[in-house]
Amino acid sequence: MKKPFILNADVIDESNAWTRNEFLCRPDMTGAEKLLMVRATMPPRGGHPFHIHPHREEIIHVVEGRAEQWVGNEYRILGPGEIAFIPAGIAHATYNPFDETLVFHAILSPAKLDATEELDEDPLDISHEEPWKSIRGA
After folding, report:
1. Is residue 80 pLDDT above 90, yes or no?
2. 31 lies in some domain
3. Which range marks the domain in which residue 107 is found?
4. How far is CA 78 from its chain centroid?
5. What is the average per-residue pLDDT within 64-88?
6. Main-chain phi, psi angles of 14, to 5 degrees
C-alpha cells in the first residue's frame, strides 16, 4: 500500500484541453489497482467530446454545476449528487453548455490494464465519426 490518504498537497494535476484534472486516486499514488479517481473542472461552455474507454467502466459524479452528460445516444442534465454510469467501450461525452463552472468526479475501473490493453488509445476520440459528430444538433 502506498498511501491510504490523499491530501490537497498530494493531488496530481494533469490538465488537458477539456478540463483541469486533479488525480485523487491512481496506482502510483495509492497503490490502487482497480480504481482511478479524477476531480475535473470544466469551464462554462466547455466540453469533452464523444470518446470511449475501451477497457474501463466509468462513473461521472457531479459535484458543482450542471453537466449535459451523454451515454450512447441518450443524455440527461445532471446536477450535484447525480451520476452517470458508462460501461466499457460505450461512447460518451460531457458538456457544460451553462454559464457556471462544472466540477465532477470521474471514477474509472480498472486502474491497471494488462499489457495488450495498455496499447489501446484511452480515451479514444470518436467525436469526428457519425453519429457522434452531429448528434447534439439532431
Report:
1. yes
2. yes
3. 10-112+119-137
4. 14
5. 98
6. -135, 75
pLDDT tens figures, 110-119: 999 999 999 9
- Please state, in angstroms and as integers, the Cα–Cα distance from residue 84 to each residue in 17, 21, 72, 109, following that order: 22, 18, 11, 14
Peptide bond into 27 cis (omega under 30): no
Determine if the pTM surpasses 0.70.
Answer: yes
Is 22 a domain residue? yes
User: Which CATH number does the domain housing residue 105 bear?
Assistant: 2.60.120.10
Tell me the DSSP string of the chain.
---S---GGG-EE---SS-EEEEEE-HHHH--SS-EEEEEEE-TTEEEEEEE-TT-EEEEEEEES-EEEEETTEEEEE-TT-EEEE-TT--EEEEE-SSS-EEEEEEEE-SS--TTGGGS-SSEE-TTSTTTTTGGG-
Measured in degrees and rounded to the nearest 5, phi and psi for residue 117 equal: -65, -30
Number of domains in the chain: 1
Residue 98: CB atoms within 10 Å: 16
Quote the distance between the C-alpha of residue 108 and its chain's center.
Answer: 8
Asked whether the beta carbons of 62 and 112 are under 8 A apart, the reply is no
